[in-house]
Amino acid sequence: MKLALFLTLAFVFQAVAESKAQKITLNVQNTTLREVMKEIQKQQGYSFLFRGDRIADTRVDAQVKQADFADAMQAILTGHGLDWSLDDGIITITTKQPIVEKERPVIQDRILTGLVTDESGIPLVGVTVSVVGKDIRALTDQYGAYRIVLPDEENTLLAFSSVGFETQEQPIRNQSSLNIVLKAVMGDLDEVVVVGYGTMKKSDITGSVASIKGEKITNTSSGSFEALLQGRVAGLHVINNNNDNPQGGSTVRVRGISSINGSNAPLVVVDGIPFGDAGGLNLINPNTILSMEVLKDASATAIYGSRGSNGVIMITTKRGDKHSPNVWLDQKTSFGSFSEKLDYWHNPLLMAELADEANENAGIDPIYIGRRATDGTYYPSRAAIASGAWPYQTEWAGYVFRPTAVTSETNLGVQGGGDKSQYYLGLGYYDGEGMQRNDDYRKLTLDLSYQHELSDYLTIISKAGFIDGDRNRNYGMNYQRNPLFPAYNGDGTYFKANSLDYGNPLALTNERKDVSPNTDGYATLQFNVKLAKPLELVLRGNTRAGLSGHNFYNPRVYTQGGDLYDGEGGIASSSYRNVTLDGYLTYTNTFAEKHAFTVMAGVTYENGTHKSLNTTGRGFANDNLMEENMSGATERFITNGFSKSVLASGFTRFNYAYHGKYLLTFTARADGSSKFGENNKWGFFPSGAASWRLSEEAFLKDVEAINDLKIRASYGVSGNQGIAPYQTISKYGQDYYYLNGEEFIIYGLGQQIGREGIGDRYVQWGGMATKDLRWEKTSQFDVGVDATMLRNRLNVTFDYYYKKTNDLLRQQFLNPSTGFDRVWTNDGEIENRGVELAVDGKILTSGKLKFDAALVFSLNRNKVVNIGSQEKSGYVVDQNGLRYEPYGSGIFNDAFLNVLAIGQPVNAFYGYRVDGIIQEMPGNPVKMTRPGEFNYVGLREDGTLDPASRQIIGDPNPDFTSSLNLQLMHDVGIDFSLMLYTMYGNDVFSNRKLDRISLQEGRWTGENPNNVRPKLRADRQYFASSWFVEDGSFLRIQQVTLGYTFPHIPFIKQARVFLNASNPIVFSNVSEYDPEVAENGRGAAPYPRVAIYTAGLQLKF
Prior knowledge:
With 1101 residues, this protein is mainly β. Helices cover 8% and strands 48% of the residues.
């Protein structure tokens, strides 16, 4: 990788020099100067301007070969009394004048005339010709001619705009006429998009592919890329439930959940190289992205075979071009603050009263009576608190959180090249703060790209990227700590918390160390070989490597669950290296002017290794050297790991088009993976698709309102190999055992280490072989419509899909007599079906104001069809005949909340139903049956719950998600955009119903016998019940941006400033601070979502 990086750097600097030293070759005789300058324009890219009568018709002779530009111009003009100058990319040729001092002439209003045509030379009617920054405009007539009065200014910028064509701006100096050729706007279906191992026009694609341009996601700062994708693509579901993490981190899904124990993340492919699942997005600087494609149906994803079942995200990064160098500089500064007021104990007296009330209702003595508890903690009396005699009223939030989190991001890009070589260099620096003090993330990114055409038959492309990051974490988030406890003792030491207080957050914030550095890099070298006119060969190699660490230390004052360890520290490191080699041939041809086909076939090899080493120690003599003094710890624990996996594949794709309107695609891939059993190493993944471009038929071809219309259908199979290596073979490792009440860790071929000594050596078998383990397979059917209408002003894409995943990668429960508790197997079936709609409309396209609107809508229905045999899955049949098995961790006094139940969605909530609050109970009820308690369905008279009464109580999956993007642009340079995002119909299991202080006032009391909240009781046992389930629907203002582009600044091609607000307002009725929770529906956000306000400057030179 070092060699590839060095070569890329060398090539980049060579290309920079080359782009500034292009040579001129001419051999002309008796040729007009106009024709000569056109030839120079082809070779150098400069525009030209003649100042003077008939200068353009001057006939010249010139013979130059590989001459410098200045020498060539001198040879052309010598002897003709002409002079030249180069300014801002424009060559101006004038008659030579004697150099004399004279006053600057006063420029009078003048008339400019000309013709406006399209690229075919056809005159354009109704084109708006306007002076930028002035209220001066004209329209072209039926012949495409215009006439406009220019202002009394030396430098004037003229804009030419028309529906269906790109707006063109042209500087005007002293000329009296100007002809313009406008380029047609590329319709959505004419767009070239990246697919696996190649590119295609979107109009020729038979699968479901969505595109995003890089500039759509760069108006705000984020430590990661995936959070910026939310609401951008139909069918792409991004759950951003950790937005205060300065390093980012989101859950990304394409068309629902397809796996139970395997991965559900889409495959990320960067410039043709698989980067793994969506976690690989963190390696990408959003400012280097040129475009992104999301492959959704089997026709598009089957080319990636065993890794395509969860969708594929294709990222194309920026590369060089053939123009003179362009330099971009972006600077963004963001300010984060909570979008909602923190809910904590502003009134310590109320807290004490509620605590004593909860104790009294439980038959426990009150604690706020001015006495010392058994653990030594003193609790003041309520009278002392009310009178002010107790001096401590600590607002812990001020110790834990920053009032404002500041983030700075700087990005620099250089792009350019000539006919043979092009280069791109991108440099980025991100410095982000979290809302918690001492919680931040910094990273430096470098991206390089170089492309060189060695000959007409061989082109070399090299790319390299590097990221160096450093994360500092803070876990001192307990801002709801008892405000009657001080931060410090009287002697200046930290106030030590007891087992009821969970630790002093100030001590956590100031003294605990938790640092995670990471370094990642990649390098790619690619050869494009033209073997013959219709046959091309691509050979490519890539290596990716990374090193990450985690150093932490909990000092001796730190309390963990009431235990003091006399210091606890750890040093961990992990590294990975992936190598990818692939090659493929592409043959393209057309017969009889109506049969067009492309055949692509290739092979690929991937090799990945991972290593880790973890050391933890407890019992340090002092805190001076922290974890660096690991040898001084009285207890030490060391673990290490190594894994390696290999994937070998062959793939092919066949595309056929008849008359450009009947399209067929067949794709197949065979994968061989080291992760699976010896009887199922290889898997085969085929797909087929067809589409019909109705707009090319005679009955629609002349319909002016329809520019392009296509219907398509596809079916195919893709796979999932998202499990760790070595799951199919017998292996040895470590396990946990108890001896005389003490926990021991048994190491394979190592020592048995316990709290009180060292035992004998052991070999512990770590897993049972499963030779028949095979791929998860997802079969998917898709039918869709792509349309462009109203002169490219309206683009519509609609899809219906049905996908079924079988042979689920599961962990089968085993009889303990085998010596193992579970083993990997294939069992079960899940289905997803849904519809997607994307509408993009250019509502206003003429005049000073432009208005665009885009709607994205996604609906997915997820269902568990089969959970396999009871022997393998250990499922339970409840009293209603529902077959289910626990899925995920427990909650409260229940072993589980989420279940996999046949006929129900994945992650469905399972628990007790609550029918209000008990208002009265005759006789002598026990605690759980007294007034003010939950009225559980299935509550027995003895206060116990009947487990058989549990049922499905909620669904965390949304009915639909949608976004609306609005954009306004005015000729004066002002732009405004607004993005709304909504999730509707999902249930949230809200833990915050217990501890949000603002909700305690509505509790049940004898004076307030409500039917909503139970009375306070300190010893209440909570169970998973419908009382915690809330409607999690929300509407969020996702992005608001206001920008201004300056009309003209000397030496600057473009300058824009903007203000952006991310997540400023959310509308929701859920008790959680943030309604956007994890995909299992469990709410746990300890504080509100952060609203981010950004000011940015974007310059182009």
